[in-house]
């Protein structure tokens, strides 16, 4: 029997920082799936197409309002995220929301502790490399691991086994008959994720702070 969300049915969706109704393929089908749930809760910074199908929208803090550590894509640096301003309005961090939820669900002790304690706990693999947590909070730190250096053996997947510059680029013909055009989905510079510009964050929070449908 093929997998089905009806076996068992999905009754609750708890979503944090995402916009799957817009970003996933077949948006109408994704939206219909969200609408089939009994209750949808969403934590985010902005209202979007997914929040439109949520029953409860909880405003989360931005990176300017919380403490965190940020990994990276494509290199081995870890950077601190230090709080600049206190949470605005009634916004709460995801960490605080989950702590409050844990308290209601009777496993408060398992989620107890402040953000710094949990960050230090999660940073243990990094601290084993001789970096202190205080250093992590002050400036970006490079993780020293020679195994992570690309092509450290000096061998490349080319005919010669060496690095080769491309002299002539000949793209393959991947077009489908009857569909000669290609759609390139690019991110405008003034977008925040999938949210278009034009509405300040504080105005969003003031106008539709916690809509309940």
Q: What does it look like?
A:
There is one protein chain. The chain is extended. It has about 210 residues and is α/β, with parallel strands linked by helices. It has helices at about 20-25, 25-35, 95-105, 115-120, 125, 135-140, 200-205, and strands at about 10-15, 40-45, 55-60, 70, 75-80, 140. Strand 4 and strand 5 form a beta hairpin. The protein has a domain at about 65-85 and about 110-175.
What's the quick description here?
By secondary structure, the protein is α/β, with parallel strands linked by helices. The protein is 23% helix and 12% strand. The protein contains 7 helices and 6 strands; from the N terminus they run βααββββααααβα.
Poorly predicted regions: 204-213
Indicate the multimeric state: single chain
- Overall strand count: 6
Mean pLDDT: 82
**Strand-residue fraction?**
5-15%
Protein name: Trimethylamine-N-oxide reductase (Cytochrome c)
Enzyme class: oxidoreductase
Domain Molybdopterin oxidoreductase: 9-104
EC number: 1.7.2.3
Secondary structure topology:
Layout: E1 12-16, H1 20-23, H2 27-36, E2 39-44, E3 56-59, E4 68-70, E5 77-81, H3 94-104, H4 115-122, H5 124-127, H6 133-138, E6 141-142, H7 201-207
Parallel strand pairs: 1-2, 2-3
Antiparallel strand pairs: 4-5, 5-6
Name the descriptors.
7 helices, alpha/beta, Mopterin_OxRdtase, extended, 213 residues, Prok_Mopterin_Oxidored, single chain, three-stranded parallel sheet
